[in-house]
Amino acid sequence: MAYEMVIWEVADGVGRLTLNRPDTLNAWTAEFGQELKSVIENEATDDSVRSVLVTGAGRGFSSGADLKAGFEPAEDGMPDVRKELHEYYHPVIAGIRRLPKPVVAAVNGPAVGIGCSLALACDLVLAAESAFFGLAFVNIGLMPDGGSTLFVPAAVGKARAFQMALLGERVEAQKALDWGLVNYVHPDDRLAGEAEALAKHLASGPTRSYAGSKKALNRMLYPDLDGQLDLEAELQHALARSKDFQEGVAAFVEKRDPAFQGA
Q: What is the distance between the alpha carbons of residues 173 and 176, in angstroms, rounded to a whole number?
C-alpha cells in the first residue's frame, strides 16, 4: 500500500517505518496517525517481518501533535481530541505493544509529546547524542497521552515522572539513558547503523521467544494499558476544550509565553 506521510520498507526481515513529515519535524495529524495505524495493524504483522525499526526523516523523530493543523472538530465546533486519540493515536501505541515481534526506536532528534510516547512505546530505544525527549503537553495546557502516563513512571519512577509531566522540560539523551528512558545513546553519525544492526540481530533471532517475553513483560508492566489509554483520552478531551489550551496554542503559534488562568 502506498503512503504519503510514512515510508515502509522491508529487507532482511526488518520492517523499517520512517515517519515522513520532515518539514514539521514529523508532527502528527489525524491522517498521519491513520497511516501509522495502518502500517502497524497490517504490513508490520506479516510473517516476513521479524522485527520493526521506527525512526524519523530529517532532523527529528517527532515533535508531537501538529498544533498548526489543529484537531478535527466535534459537532459543537470544539476539538474532538477523544476521537483522534481513540481512532488514530492510541491504536498505534497499543498496536506496537501487542505486536508479537520486537520494535526498535531510533530517535534521531526531538521526541516530544506524542512523539515521545511513540518512542517509549517501543521495546528498545536508541537515541542520537543530540536527541532529546519531553512531555511538553503541559506547555500548552494539556496532559501526557499516548500511554506516557504509564510508560514514563514504569521506566523512571514517581519523582522523575512527575517532573517530566508537570514541568515539561527537555530530557537530553544522556540524561534519558541515566534515567532509564532509553537503552543506548550513540553519536549522531552512528545511530542509523547501530539501529539497523540491532534490528537485523533481532530479526535473525528466536522470534517466538521475543513474543513470549514481550507478552509476559506487558502483563507485568502495563496490565491495564487499554484502561490507561481510555483515561488519558477522557482527561485530554476535557483539557482540549479549556481556555488554557486555547491560550497555550495561541502562545505557541505566536512564539510567546502563555498566560494560563486555570480555566
A: 5
